[in-house]
Structures are given as structure tokens and as C-alpha cells.
Amino acid sequence: MVPKKNIRNHCSAIAGLAIAVAATCGCAQVQTNNAVNAGAHGEAKEGGAEAEVMRGLQYTMGPSKNYAQAFALFRKAADQGSANGEYAVAQSYEVGRGVEKDETEAVVWYRKAAEQGVTAARARLRTMFVHGQLTPVDDDRGGKWWHGLVEQAADESQSFSLTYAAAAQGNADAEVTLAVAYLTGVGTPKDRTQATWLFQQAAGQGQTEAQCLVAAISASDDDWTIPAEMTRAADLCINAANHRYADAQLVLSTFYMMGRGVPKDPVQASFWQRTAAEQGRRDAAFMLGDDYEHGKGVPKDAAQSLIWIRKAADQGYPPAMTNLGMQASLAHFTGKEDPLGDKELAKEFLDLGVEYASDSERDLLPNLWASRAAQERERRLQKQWRRIVAPALKPIGADGQ
């Protein structure tokens, strides 16, 4: 297999001991990070401003809501340098509570809060980026965190462009990599139709992994209702897996897990998860860790479970970091063994989990198995994007242009 640059960006877990309090609308929340308040800002220094934030929150609850007054208090706190005030102001602008809705201003204030370490603000900006609502660019207001996001966006764009150029020349491996980018939405809006077309082109050249993935997409698009189609997909993925294609190994593990196209076999599912994990697939390592935790296809073994989940976490896989961070945090309350033995690492895993949670929308398997409803949502978004944004690259693919 020709090694492919991984242009999918995954990240992490669940927020560290944050207090979620109702904020600028019924469903919106201000997440107050205790570590930020007590550490980076200092409770004594921030006490007055934080009191303004809490007073503002009171105006968002109960029968006598006054969002305008809440916003005034949030803004007062933000002007004093309160990170939580900045976050509350950002949410107010984003949802239009107490102030006219203004997404540009929302981003300005989310950025301020993000630079001060507010995990929820970072998470919101990353979600906007993943959804294509935000294009990070360098400017004179950018801090270290923002520059990191700008660099990520630039790297993804460059990887997509280089892969696009190679695919346009008929390189089958590049066509597969580009198809995965379209399928998962990295460096480009998600486009299942374009992904399928590229898989078909590569498969037509005899690219084994593409043959597996396009057959799997076809079976999924038919809601797994055609036995012959499932069997064909499984057979092609067995062939690709035996040729050491890690994506095919991961897909094949789910066939055995669910009994699609092959008899249900947890032992085979775990075997292929391990094989993919040994080739560096973080999601496969996490799945194998879960197998060991629950005794699915392998003997139940807490030590092995920890080894594989930790391997996935060290590679930056969000669910794995969430899992270990939560286990470590809960151990102090339940008396169970702390799997990390490092409070700072546990907090780091938890914070990264919140910040990068939306990156799970880029994982291969959920996009490969997307429901018809999810596909229709993506088609609507893609249609809007094509109408509003002029394409920067000459189109190739399913539309025949």
C-alpha cells in the first residue's frame, strides 16, 4: 500500500470539571472553567467581574427574564477582562439574546475567551470551522491559540489541494485519499456523491481499497437491505484487508461485528481491529480497548483495555481521551484506581475533549454509514455551499465538468 498522508484531523474529549450554567437562551450555556478562574485569572482578581457574570445569568432564568440586562452585565464583565464574560457576550451575539444577532461579533468575543483558555469558546470556534462556517485567517488580533487554528486550516487546505492535483492526473491512491476527504469533510465540504465517484474511478483502476469502500458505501446507501450487495462488499473488504489497507481492515471489523455480508463473529471483529490499530488507526485501537473492557471477541482484561485506550488517547483520539480523563476524574470520588495517575494529564484530556469534540464528525465510519436523512442534510448544505461560494479549484468528478 502506498502510504497516504492523513488529512483527517481528529482531536479529543470532554471538558475538565466545568460548571454549565444556563445562559443567553434556553438551550445555550456558559461553561465556567474552574481551572481558568482559579488559575489563569485568579479568583481575587476576577471576583468582581465574575459576580457580574453570575448576576447576568440570573436575568436569563425564571419567569422574569431580561436578556438586555443580562447582556449589559456580561459586557461589563468582559470589558474588565473576564474570560467568562467574554464567552457570555459571544453567545449573546451568536443567538441574538439581549443584543442584535451578529455572528461576526460572536467570533470576535469567542476568540477573546479562547485566548484566555475558555475550553467552551475554543470548542465553539472549532465547531464553526469543522462545519465550514468559519475560515480562520491571520490578523493582528490573533493569539497563540488562534494561530494554531489558522495553521491547521492551512495544512488541511494544502493537503487537499495537493491530493486533488494528483487525483486529477488519475493517481488511484490519490483518488482514494481525496474521496475520504470529501466523505469526511476535511479541507472541503462533505460531498458523498463526489466521494463515491472518486472511489469508483480508483476501483476501476484496480485499487483494492477503493473497491472495498465503494462497495461498502453502496450497501449502506441501500440501507443494508440487499444480501448479495452486503456479501460482495464483505468479500472485497476481506481482499483489501488482507492487502494491509487499514481503512478496509476497520470497515471489515464492523462487518464481522454486525454480521453484514459475513456471519457475526466478535473474534474476527477484534482481530481486524487489532490489525488496523497496529497500523496506527486510533479509532481501531479505541474499539479494541472497548472489546477488552467488555470481553467482546477477546478475554475480558482491564490491563489490556487500558493499554489500547491509552494508545488511542496518546494519538489524540477524542473518545479515548474522554474515556481516560473521565475515569481518572471519577476515581477520586469512587475510590477506584486512577488509570492515569496524573491529575494534570486527566485535566488535559478532559479539556481537549470539549475543545475537539466536533472533530468526531470527521471520523470515517459514521460518515461511511451515514443514514439517508444525514445524507440529505449534507446534500442541502452542499447545494448551498456551491451556490454561495465560487469553487477555488476546477471541478472534477460526478458532475462531469
TrEMBL record:
Classification via Pfam families: Sel1
Keywords (A to Z) from UniProt: Signal
Domain of life: Bacteria
Extent of the signal sequence: 1-28
Gene3D superfamilies to which the protein is assigned, alphabetical: Tetratricopeptide repeat domain (1.25.40.10)
InterPro entries reported in the protein's UniProt record: ISR_Activator, Sel1-like, TPR-like_helical_dom_sf
Record has Lipid biosynthesis as a keyword: no
KW Nucleotide-binding (keyword) present: no
Name used for this protein in its record: Sel1 repeat family protein
Origin species: Paraburkholderia nemoris
Lineage: Bacteria, Pseudomonadati, Pseudomonadota, Betaproteobacteria, Burkholderiales
